[in-house]
Each structure stands twice: as C-alpha cells, then as structure tokens.
DNA sequence: GCCCTGACTGCTA
DNA sequence: TTAGCAGCCAGGG
C-alpha cells in the first residue's frame, strides 16, 4: 500500500537535514511530479498540530529562496525564526542563500526505503 | 464527477 | 531579482 500524496510530501520533507532548505518544486520532483509544487504547498498547509511538530515544514520555501506563507497560525515569522534557530541565515531582503543552505535532495526510492524501514 | 482553490514554478518583459 | 500570466496536481465541497 503506497502512502498517499500528502504522506509522501511529509516523508520527503522529513528527510531534509537540519540547517538545509528545499523548494516546493524540489519536493514535488522527488515525488515524481515536478509540476505539483502547488500541491506540495497545499499538503504542508494541511499540516495540523502534532504533524507540524514532526514535519520540518519550515525548511520548505519557494524557488526564489524566500518564505511565502501568509497564514496567522503558521506565519512566515515563525518559519524564519525556526530556520535561524537551525543556523540558516537570511539576507537583508529575507532571502536564503541556496548555495549555502540548499538541500541536494533524494530519489523517491530512497525516501521510500526510509519509509519501509520505519524511519 | 465537476468546479474552485492554493505555503508554486517557469517564461517573458 | 520583480511583476504579470498561464499551467499543473490533488483534495474538498
């Protein structure tokens, strides 16, 4: 039984190492749908309480290297604060340096393997 | 099963 | 990099 799209998104996001960031499109690509970036954002948007604690959603930003959240409970401020706490720095304009903090990503097969191993 | 929405992306100017 | 525009995917009503 394969996990549904949302679960896959969470699994992939959970593989992002501390201090690194990935873009929505990158996550979507790992899942096999490079064009489903919006759906990835939608999946993270659907994160609730407990799951929000397990999934490092703050490490997912847009392709411009910037946070693009506009919600009250999970605000851009919170995301930025969490990332800075992990050592990720923002420039004066609020952008992240992809060269320094960009995540190389994984193959879905690898993520799937981790899922299978109970990770 | 159709229609709308959305934490996006790539292309063009 | 920024602004504007259209395309893509999956879930919810």
SSE layout:
Elements: H1 5-14, E1 22-23, H2 24-30, H3 37-45, H4 49-54, E2 60-61, H5 76-85, H6 98-101, H7 108-116
The structure holds a DNA duplex (13 and 13 nucleotides).
Overview of the structural elements:
There is one protein chain. The protein is mostly helical. Helices cover 46% and strands 3% of the residues. The protein is built from seven helices and two strands. A two-stranded parallel sheet has the order 1-2. α2 crosses α3 (37-45). The two termini are 16 Å apart. The structure holds a DNA duplex (13 and 13 nucleotides).
Sequence stretches where pLDDT stays below 50 over 5 or more residues = none
Order of helices and strands: HEHHHEHHH
Shape field: globular
> How are the strands ordered across the major sheet?
1-2
Q: Counting H and I runs of at least 4 residues, what is the number of helices?
A: 7
Fraction in beta strands = under 5%
Q: Using only CA atoms, what is the Rg?
A: 14 Å
Report the span from N to C terminus.
16 Å
Give the mean pLDDT: 88
Number of strands: 2
Largest sheet, strands/sense/barrel: 2 strands, parallel
Q: Kindly name the structural category.
A: mainly alpha
Helix content: 40-55%
């Amino acid at each position: 039984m394969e996990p549904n799209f949302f679960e896959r998104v969470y699994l992939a996001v959970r593989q992002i190492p501390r201090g690194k960031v990935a873009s929505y499109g990158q996550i979507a690509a790992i899942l096999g749908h490079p064009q489903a970036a919006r759906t990835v954002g939608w999946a993270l948007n659907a994160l609730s309480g407990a799951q929000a604690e397990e999934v490092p959603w703050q490490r997912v930003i847009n392709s411009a290297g910037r946070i693009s959240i506009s919600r009250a409970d999970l605000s851009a401020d919170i995301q930025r604060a969490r990332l800075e706490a992990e050592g990720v720095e923002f420039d004066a304009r609020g952008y992240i340096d992809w060269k320094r903090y960009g995540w190389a990503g994984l193959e879905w097969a690898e993520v799937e393997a981790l899922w299978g191993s109970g990770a």
